[in-house]
Design a protein that fits this description.
With 193 residues, the protein is of the alpha+beta class. The protein is built from 4 helices and 6 strands; from the N terminus they run αααββββββα. The strands form 2 sheets. A 3-stranded antiparallel β-sheet has the order 1-4-5. Strands 2-6-3 form a 3-stranded mixed β-sheet. It is rod-shaped, with a radius of gyration of 42 Å.
């Protein structure tokens, strides 16, 4: 019987050791699970960031391609504007009453209309600001003239039309801008001062 209590004591110690080992194993497993959950969260965050980066890169590339398509005609359009200007000047300087040049003038008008329609199809729009307020974003002032009968900073003459390509300035309109005349209200204010 003496052996029996010893055996029971050893069994209890063995059970206690196994219990400690089980607790140690459980703690180790809990620590590993926490570590793996942290690694998983980090990996998910990195995957989300990578997906966002790819989406942003795709969006930027699409925008660049869209801009390239939209403005690919810019240099070519600038070269064509000189032809349109020449046709317009030729029509301005020729008389529509002269029977000898009437067929040539008619041909120039048709050619100019064809050019204008083609430019419009490609979103190239003329800027002809006669009578409008001066806009430095679309107009280039060549000179200023005193005018009493026109509001100051109004376009009174257009030397050369401007053009936009898809809403972006291709060439500014060259204009003459009005300024207040000496006899206007500004002149009387200056004289009293």
């Amino acid at each position: 019987m003496v052996d029996e209590p010893r055996q029971e004591l050893q069994d209890e110690e063995s059970v206690a050791d196994q219990g400690q080992e089980t607790v140690a194993v459980e703690e180790d497993l809990v620590a590993r699970i926490a570590s793996l959950e942290e690694q998983l969260a980090t990996a998910q965050d990195q995957a989300l960031r990578a997906a966002a980066d790819v989406q942003n890169a795709r969006r930027r590339a699409e925008q660049e391609v869209e801009k390239a398509h939209k403005f690919a005609l810019e240099r070519f359009a600038n070269d064509l504007l000189a032809v349109v200007d020449s046709l317009e000047r030729g029509l301005e300087l020729s008389s529509d009453e002269d029977a000898a040049i009437k067929p040539m003038r008619d041909g120039m008008e048709l050619t100019l209309k064809l050019f204008s329609d083609t430019l419009a199809r490609h979103q190239i729009v003329a800027v002809d600001p006669h009578g409008e307020p001066f806009n430095p974003e679309l107009h280039q002032a060549m000179t200023m003239e005193e005018r009493d009968n026109v509001e100051p900073n109004t376009v009174i003459k257009v030397f050369q039309k401007g053009y936009t390509l898809s809403g972006r300035l291709l060439r500014p309109a060259m204009v003459v801008v009005s300024k207040a005349g000496a006899g206007g209200a500004a002149g009387s204010i200056n004289e009293q001062a």
